[in-house]
Amino acid sequence: MAAKAGDNPDSLMTLATVFCLRNLRKTMCYQGFRNKLCLRSDIFLPSEICDKLVNTYMELVHTDSNFEPEESFFQLFSDPRSTRLTRVQLREDFVRDRDLEAIRKQDLIELHLTYCNSLSSRSLKTLTCFRETLVSLCLFGCTHIFYRKGGAPLACNEDTEDEEEESPASRQMLETDFNFQGFNRLRLLNLGGLPDEVDAETLLKPLKSLTSLDLSNVQLLGTAFLTQWKDRLASLVLYNVDLSEELVNTVVEIVNLSYETEHLDISRESRRTSKFKMTRKILTAIVQRLVNLVSLDISGHVMLDNCTVPHFEEAMGRPSIEPCKSSIYPFQELKRPLQFLGLYDTTLCNVTHIPAYKVTGSKNEDQVLNAIEAYTEFRPELAHRAINQLFDIARIQHCSQLLRALQLVIAALKCHKYDKSVQVTGSAALFYLTNTEYRSDQSVRLRREVIQVVLNGMEQYQEVTVQRNCCLTLCNFSIPEELEFQYSRVNQLLLKILEPARQDESIQRIAVHLCNALVCQVDNHHKEAVGKMGFVKTMLNLIQKKLQDRMCDQVMEFSWSALWNITDETPDNCQMFLNCRGMSLFLECLQEFPDKQELHRNMLGLLGNVAEVKVLRPQLLTPQFISVFSNLLDSKADGIEVSYNACGVLSHIMFDGPDVWSMEEPRRDTVMDKMWDAIQSWDVSSRRNINYRSFEPILRLLPQSISPVSQHWATWALYNLVSVYPLKYCPLLIKEGGISLLEKVLELESSQPETKDMASKVMEQCENFKEHPMETNHGQEVNYGQRG
């Protein structure tokens, strides 16, 4: 059997790393002084393991809400004699100055800090501790690292390790003492987002050996300083740098002097924000002078029409990557196809022949996926636009690269958990990428990844669009089965959505539907746990609001259905229902909506669950409630369902005997007569809107003589279910010992003749099923409803 998309298991290294991080005190650490986490003295870890521990730790912090960060985690790597770090990637505001200071004795080769806005100029001082070994450094989006915190001078003091660092660095105190003097091994540097106040030229001057430089979103006063790397610069990124023809020519001249230059990026976020226009002359100069070029990004530029071959002159045949057939004139001079060509948000991506193996653009699915892949990490503003285009492809057309599409969207949502635009478009794309059309191609592992990033979005954003998209995406999964591994978390999030007094109507409807599905067909311990989260009270609050609005809609009906499900065989939840004025709301709903059949069925099903709990039945035994149940015996709503459920409630009450019947009206005998009449009016072949997981509450009514009508109701219920749905209910009845209890019904003198006759038919039906299991199914084996 072929593996489904995304079914590759985690490596043993990954599994072991995650396990250790979730169980630090049981594996490699102990609790030290002042509860400080300390590494055991017999632990010595090489760089391969330490790097994996730190980088996986950061991923868990950002993507797993159940993972608890450790205050002193980075202190575990403070001593290079027992732990070795070489390649570390840290991102977002979670990283603080003291975390970097904790590892300052390590001989780091790579340090990537991305969007670490909690870092101040204290961390610049820490960087100097790595100057002799650092080869690759990224400070992308770390806008506060060049400013002093609270006006404090640049310092790296061991006494400040435990200092609280809650406030970001002040943007008013620019750090002027730092430079890259001594970083002689540094080859790759990313300063994307460098504040305008920082002079890039002065900052970079000491670095003589750079081979890769990223100055995205940096304001440059000039580019002459780039000449210091003219003999070695292999990659230059000037994304969103204000360009002019003169500046581009200067850049081309400089990198032309370096025969090593393979990657040039002069792209922009959008054509709308640029005065510069890309001409055929400029593009030709780039191609001609950069003879070793393998990667070029000119996305977001206005392209003059003279760059492209007229359609009628284009080479015939299928799209080609051969430079000689290029539909873009300047690229016809390439010696070989480019490995990568960024044409996103340009007109050039729409031409037929593009001489590159990988192209970003918006013409087709492949270009869009390439754009998401290329721009997710450092350009979320472009990634979210590309994801939006993928959304249209999945919604209107068909996504042919499903696994890649899902993995890229998941990666974008994980990477930019705090970017609202990415979360909105990503969650919308996931809705279409996980629907029925694509479901059969997806593995359990991949679908679980989707669920986790969806729940991350729900946790982070209370905004209507994100919440709606996430809830709709969850509806694409088999509930509760596929959500069970995150059962508690998803219920908490849904209940949080339903807390506000006035919620968006569509979100409320979807969330209640999900809540209902989540408590249907799950174990009782799940229901009890959800009940303790406030599930019952939340549903009753929704019902109360709908009553105030005099509106019986899907939210109202789903809320009662959810209460029916969560109270099934869970006495504590039944008690909560009564304690939270549930019976008052039941009566109000009956009075306000007398003709709503579905509503009545759900409410009576719920009360059937309450009536099964012996200690709670006295609360139902009032003249008002008994009269209501008795009147509902005559109901024809939803076939026999309302009448059947009302009779079930009364059957359990009658089972407690005449001694508990303290009221004068209605009389017990009168109510029992009405119950007999109701049962005899039902068609025993009726198809049901109900689903029993256990017959135990019914079976307890069989071997007794206190209430023959209760016994008859129970026998009728069994006969109806085993004759209409034999494949499902004959095995259940046999398994739960129902046959021996029916035999006792036949032995009891108090059992009515019609009850004994029906009991015999139930036993006969089960006997036939055991002999010929496939021949007893007289109806379609489908159950649409639920029982509690």
From TrEMBL:
Superkingdom assignment: Eukaryota
Keyword terms of this UniProt record: Leucine-rich repeat, Repeat, Ubl conjugation pathway
InterPro entries xrefs: ARM-like, ARM-type_fold, Armadillo, LRR_dom_sf, LRR_Zer-1, ZER1-like_C, Zyg-11_UBL_adapter
Location of the region described as Disordered in the Swiss-Prot/TrEMBL record: 769-788
Residue span(s) of domain Zer-1-like leucine-rich repeats region: 202-346
Gene Ontology annotations for the cellular component aspect, listed alphabetically: Cul2-RING ubiquitin ligase complex
Domain Protein zer-1 homolog-like C-terminal: 413-768
A matching Pfam family: ZER1-like_2nd
SUPFAM superfamilies in alphabetical order: ARM repeat (SSF48371), RNI-like (SSF52047)
UniProt record similarity statement: Belongs to the zyg-11 family.
The name this protein goes by in its record: Protein zer-1 homolog
